[in-house]
Amino acid sequence: MKVYIPDDSSACAAGADRVASAFEKIKEVEIVRTSSRGAFFLEPLVEVDTPQGRAGYSNVPPSQVPVLLKKTPEPISQMSFFTKQTRFTFANAGVTEPMSIEQHGFKALNKARGMDPQKILDEMKKANLRGRGGAAFPAGIKWQTTKDTASDLKYVVANADEGDPGTYSDRMILEGDPYRLIEGMAICAHAVGAKKGFVYVRSEYPAGITKLRNAIAHATEAGILEEDFFELKVFVGAGAYICGEETALLESLEGKRGMVRPKPPFPAIQGLWQKPTVINNVVTFATVPDVILRGGDWHASLGTEKSKGTIPLQLAGQVKNAGLVEVPFGVTLEEVIWGYGGGMPKGAKFKAVQVGGPLGSIFPKSLLKTKICFDEFIKVGGILGHGGIVVYDDDTNMVNLSRHFMEFTAEESCGKCTPCRIGSTRAKEILEVILAGQGTKEDLALLDELGETMKLGSLCALGGLAPMPVQTAIQYFGNEFQRK
């Protein structure tokens, strides 16, 4: 009997390795280590084959292993967390073995190599795939710009510096489906005429780094990257949040301190070592194979008018079902938190939700009908970012939370521009005064003025978006900022 156990970092943190070790003592069992399905609240999730497909045992402790297979597993297809999802980019999650080239197949890359490069770009533009890293810029337009820029050398760079707290979709690709990322980058290289590529991975992802390097080595040995002479390497970052910003990332890749470059020129024209460079995040590249296999029209048929396709949302915080959910754009925050996340844990009461990482707005209950869509979020003063959703209960102190976010910005600022470097530090100091119960109306006014200066004067999105969680916390929970 085959027993499928994920080796994803989150699953291992929940005890998956200990469960696998317990199964090794049973002679009749063959252990297959897969990726995780992203239902982290069910881990360790052990699966077996049945006539109806895979079925699973959830939250398995090692002590249950000797008697586990005598129990009836629950069909994966009937688990409510998965039944309403629309999985394409994460279709292989929990199903395939991460290091198996045979299971991946590289069908999209084989098809792309039989296509004229411009035809690939036309399909990408037709698909209207917008970057999943936060900026939401159309990937097809970016790729076309790089292709049309004359140069003796061009690059393709994947941004895997996934630094937003509560996000892990990039990590799941790196650890669970690395060939999908490699395939998307190779298709891009073929389309724009690039010969070299880099994956910039945050140092906090050691398992992902190891698997990706092994996958690149296997793909190279198998000759998969040779047809276009595409050389792909992994570069490990040094823990700076600012290097998630594309130009700071490029500076770091060049061996310099990670600091933001003024734009223009944009990386698509003048990027790595001043050469035309396509830089997209991991999930964006991982979505490309389905666009090529199924066509741009297929991708454009999913989602909303301006936000096409599906998006992996990462649920964390005060929800029953923490994990990754892939759905078409257009569902509401309320549907995601209660329909997929299962709502609040017993005894907890909803207070707020933050979407888009530490720079994202704080939304109250009145905004839960907001649709998951780039443009809808902008309308209500928020950002969708990388799709991280963190839910807060009524025990959350909004002043302390705001101070924490501004402290984060002050710590992670690259220091190049004054509004971000000084503004974040002063804002943190003001919030500490308010937290101590010594704040005044003048302090709140100064805090708002600092926020507006940071938004208008900062060189990049770190400083420009940093005031959003603080300003929205004051807007919707202003009573907590008043002296008691």
Question: What do you see in this structure?
Answer:
This protein is α/β, with parallel strands linked by helices and 484 residues long. It has 4 domains: 2-83, Glutaredoxin, CATH 3.40.30; 107-300, NADH-ubiquinone oxidoreductase 51kDa subunit (Rossmann fold), CATH 3.40.50; 310-393, Roll (Ubiquitin-like (UB roll)); 398-481, de novo design (two linked rop proteins) (Up-down Bundle), CATH 1.20.1440. The protein is 40% helix and 15% strand. The protein is built from 21 helices and 14 strands. It has a 5-stranded mixed beta sheet, with helices on one face. Strand 3 and strand 4 (53-57) form a beta hairpin. The longest helix has 18 residues, at 418-435. It is globular, with a radius of gyration of 23 Å. The chain starts with a strand and ends in an 8-residue tail after the last helix. The mean pLDDT is 95.
Summarize the structure.
Helices cover 40% and strands 15% of the residues. It is α/β, with parallel strands linked by helices and 484 residues long.
Low-confidence stretches: none
Beta strand count: 14
The named CATH superfamily of the largest domain: NADH-ubiquinone oxidoreductase 51kDa subunit
Give me the CATH architecture of the largest domain, please. Answer: 3-Layer(aba) Sandwich
Q: What's the assembly state of these chains?
A: single chain
